[in-house]
TrEMBL record:
Chain residue ranges for the region called Disordered: 1-31
Protein known as: DMT family transporter
Biased composition (Basic and acidic residues): 10-19
Entry annotated with the keyword Transmembrane helix: yes
Length: 334
């Protein structure tokens, strides 16, 4: 899954301003949002999902020639420059000392290890399968939130986790039929999902204190530093690769990372976060369609069954138990 960025209090303030309307003096009713604003939001959603889905396909395409470390470093360097332009063109809010441990955890896990694991996974499994496995990330987020954030462990959370992880088992079963290397690819994709979850939990409190662009840019720079040990590989790739390979690396840094993060933040500031997150379930299916059209790849049949279970599991974790009805007090005896 490509990562999503919210704006914390910064995004909520924008959201509050965007929802502020005036009432009609005769009817007392608020006018409906402008059609143009609605179209812009829908367009931003479409752009975000398409770019995130295309990232899985681009990684799969480049994985044949570009090592995972070099690809991660190249993508993050390009993204750092592109996001830096966005950050430095307006007044900035820098993190306090207490924010840096969380920033380091987010940057190392979400941007560093996540990219390394996903790039290595897609050398073994197809783009659609990797996108489906990474969709288990929200379930891991919910599980870790109960441990580290003190959130309540509900019945639906347990059921959803069981269904979601059953989906991963089914995907692993379908992929391992092609050889043990495919099973290793599934485990690498699971590692990517875990580091994504850790990054989300680290980012959550940061976005309550800092604007989203600053958090994203700093985490991206930290991720690039994590990948510096592969700088020699990247130099070799730049020297020996054809221009199309370099273009695809630049594409990953600019479009699925810098631009998609920006359009996601734009939508998040104007929409309900919970409902909006559900749209990311379209990413694996869009990625599968793009991979089928451009790479002639079709995931194993069991992958679709497992993917459906993963998504069902995430949906179940979002259900809320109905509050128990309190028994009505008996009328006093005459």
């Amino acid at each position: 899954m490509e990562t999503s960025v919210g704006g914390g209090d910064y995004g909520r303030r924008v959201s509050d301003r965007s929802r502020t309307t005036t009432t009609d003096s005769t009817t007392g009713l608020a006018p409906s949002p402008g059609r143009r604003a609605h179209v812009l939001v829908l367009a931003a959603v479409a752009v975000t999902l398409l770019l995130w889905a295309s990232a899985f396909v681009a990684i799969r395409h480049l994985g044949r020639d570009v090592p995972p470390g070099a690809l991660s470093l190249g993508r993050l360097l390009v993204a750092s420059v592109a996001l830096g332009v966005l950050v430095f063109r307006r007044p900035r809010t820098w993190p306090a000392k207490r924010d840096w441990p969380l920033l380091l955890l987010c940057g190392v896990g979400w941007f560093g290890v996540y990219n390394l694991a996903l790039n290595a996974a897609e050398r073994r499994i197809d783009a659609g399968t990797s996108a489906l496995v990474v969709q288990v990330g929200p379930i891991i987020v919910a599980l870790l939130a109960t441990v580290f954030l003190g959130e309540k462990m509900t019945r639906w959370l347990l059921i959803g986790m069981a269904v979601g992880f059953a989906g991963v088992v089914v995907i692993a079963r379908g992929s391992s039929s092609g050889g043990s290397g495919d099973l290793v690819g599934v485990w690498l994709a699971i590692l990517a999902a875990v580091t994504y979850a850790v990054g989300v939990l680290a980012q959550k409190p940061l976005l309550g204190r800092l604007p989203g662009p600053e958090v994203t840019w700093l985490a991206c720079v930290i991720g690039a530093v994590v990948c510096l040990p592969w700088s020699g590989e990247l130099v070799t790739v730049v020297r020996e690769s054809d221009p199309s390979t370099l273009w695809w690396i630049a594409y990953l840094g600019v479009f699925p990372t810098a631009i998609a993060f920006s359009t996601w933040a734009y939508v998040l500031a104007r929409s309900n976060a919970g409902t909006l997150t559900l749209t990311t379930f379209l990413v694996p299916f869009i990625a599968t369609l793009i991979a089928w059209a451009l790479l002639s790849e079709v995931p194993p049949a069991l992958t679709y069954v497992g993917g459906a279970l993963c998504i069902a599991g995430v949906l179940l974790t979002r259900r809320k138990s109905r509050p128990r009805r309190q028994p009505e007090p008996e009328p006093p005896a005459d």
